């Protein structure tokens, strides 16, 4: 009986250790989630700086999280659109590293 109890205890301990390891692996956010969290922090900070509340804050946060800067000038919006377009082109061409930096620089200049 003691051997059976010892074996069950070991099995439960091993199972709980495996479950804890899986929980830790699941809780680590992906790079995309980390980027979204950073965007949320930045937008939240900007909304706080502007002392926005209620519907105005919701609207601002929605626009900000989409990558739109509420109140941005036409020139800023054009630059943001250009950045989006160049970024898409670089992704389509599967350009990485220094080659991507060079591509983005030339694309954004003209």
Which terms summarize this structure?
5 helices, mainly alpha, 110 residues
Give structural notes.
This protein is an all-alpha fold. It has 5 helices and no strands. α2 packs antiparallel against α3 and α4 runs antiparallel to α5.
Number of helices: 5
Helix content: over 70%
- Kindly report how far apart the N and C termini lie: 80 Å
Q: Major sheet, described briefly?
A: none
Shape field: flat
Uncertain parts: none
Note the beta-strand portion. Answer: under 5%
Q: What would you report as the Rg, rounded to the nearest angstrom? A: 24 Å
By helix and strand content, what is the structural category?
Answer: mainly alpha
Q: What is the residue-averaged pLDDT?
A: 79
What is the total tally of β strands? Answer: 0
State the order of secondary-structure elements, H for helix, E for strand. HHHHH
Question: Secondary-structure map with pairings?
Answer:
Elements: H1 2-27, H2 31-49, H3 54-65, H4 74-93, H5 97-109
Helix pairs in contact: 2-3, 4-5
What's this, in brief?
The protein is mainly α and 110 residues long.
């Amino acid at each position: 009986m003691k051997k059976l109890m010892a074996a069950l205890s070991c099995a439960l301990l091993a199972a709980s250790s495996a479950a804890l390891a899986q929980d830790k692996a699941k809780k680590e956010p992906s790079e995309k989630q980390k980027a979204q969290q950073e965007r949320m922090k930045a937008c939240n900070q900007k909304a706080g700086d502007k002392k926005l509340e209620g519907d105005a804050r919701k609207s601002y946060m929605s626009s900000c999280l989409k990558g739109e800067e509420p109140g941005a000038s036409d020139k800023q919006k054009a630059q943001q659109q250009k950045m989006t377009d160049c970024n898409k082109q670089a992704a389509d061409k599967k350009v990485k590293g220094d080659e991507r930096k060079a591509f983005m620089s030339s694309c954004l200049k003209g």
